[in-house]
Amino acid sequence: MCSALASIDLPEGIGSIENAAFSGCKALASITCLSKTPQPSTCDTIFDDYIYKRVTLFVPKEAVEAYKMAIGWRRFKKIVAL
């Protein structure tokens, strides 16, 4: 359980992340993903549903539109350019 985790930084070369890896991260406020190409299966099952509504996802400027359309990632309500 990661109840005190406030932010997550995902490096550019990230592969897959285990299902529910960030489950219970109630203090999470931001996620920074440095990959310019959103990995479709990476984020769909690793967060609790409430995360997509209240956490800000920061991505490379040139990738904002790709994240807004990518499976899983498009669930985030706030996708912001780095």
Give the overall shape, derived from the CA principal axes: globular
**Largest sheet, spatial ordering of strands:** 1-2-3-4
Radius of gyration: 11 Å
Give the topology string: H per helix, E per strand.
EEHEHE
How many alpha or pi helices? 2
Number of strands: 4
Fraction of residues in H or I helices: 10-25%
Q: Could you report the average pLDDT, rounded to the nearest whole number?
A: 89
Strand-residue proportion: 15-25%
Class derived from helix and strand content = alpha/beta
Q: How far apart are the first and last residues' alpha carbons, in Å?
A: 28 Å
Main beta-sheet annotation: 4 strands, parallel
Poorly predicted runs:
none
